[in-house]
Amino acid sequence: MPLSQSIIFFTGVGVGALLFALGIWGGFGWGRRRGRRDATAPLQGAELLGIIEALSQWTSEYSGNVTRYQDELSSAARVVQETIETGNPKTTPIVKVLDDIMTSNQSLKQRLDDAERQLEKQTRSIEAYISEARTDALTKLPNRRAADQRLDEMFSAWQKGGPGFVVAMIDVDHFKQINDRYGHPEGDAVLQHMAQLLTNHIEGAYMVARFGGEEFVALMPPPLRVAADRIDRFRKIVADQTVTVADQEIEFTISVGVAECRNDLLIGPIVRRADEALYAAKGMGRNRVYFHDGKQPILVGAPEVAV
Known about the structure:
The chain is 63% helix and 14% strand. By secondary structure, it is of the alpha+beta class. It has helices at residues 3-37, 45-85, 92-133, 144-159, 175-182, 184-201, 224-239, 268-283; strands at 166-172, 207-212, 215-220, 242-245, 248-251, 254-260, 289-292, 297-301. Helix 1 (3-37) packs antiparallel against helix 2, helix 2 runs antiparallel to helix 3 and helix 5 packs across helix 6 (184-201). Strands 2-3-1-6-7-8 form a six-stranded mixed β-sheet, sandwiched between helices. Strands 4-5 form a two-stranded antiparallel ribbon. The radius of gyration is 32 Å and the shape is elongated. Strand 7 (289-292) and strand 8 (297-301) form a beta hairpin. The termini are far apart.
């Protein structure tokens, strides 16, 4: 390569390096300004996780860019070295400049690699935090927050032509009496056993979650009556179970209200109909399943109803 072309090439490389550095500086400056601007706006966990993942991807991309840039500079340095070996000493300062640029880039690459590892560590920590924030500590089921989010997602999908779903509100009967008679640790054991039964026997459910206290929710595929019959079979399984805690045999039953989407504009009316069916089940003696047909709760199954 003629010396004049080498000078032009290396001048271009130097300008590229300067623009690259300015781009990084500008990017960090924008990030700081944006951080100040949004400091008062609370971030949801999922949003924060998305930001961290984006930063991690950005860091990985730029780390790769720096690696490729170093390879290009190494190749250019070899060209200049060959020119020097031909006996033209005027290119020696160019080699010194290239060496300095490569040293700087090696340092930058190390910092980017360190930052990427730190970002990946932060991402894992935030994922663990989000999972914990959406999991009930006692039963290990999804909690109310997770259930509400899933309800919103499914309802939004249904409005856009997606599949419908059935909401089953499940309540442990006379749970306060269980706590008062056996103790709170034993009551906790009943809830844990209930969670295990839900996990094992409500197959194909979109989600089962602890909704709060002794109340659980199951999001199930339609049609409504099929889902209600499945829940009634589950009610019978629960009634036949006992929980052994500290040599005590604890029996318990459940009451359930079931409802489905019916030309609703909001998710609230669906949950309200399920609650109305649950209240009917409890009001009529408990250990019952009612579904709501859009007009009124209707009995599905109870101890006195023949199979």
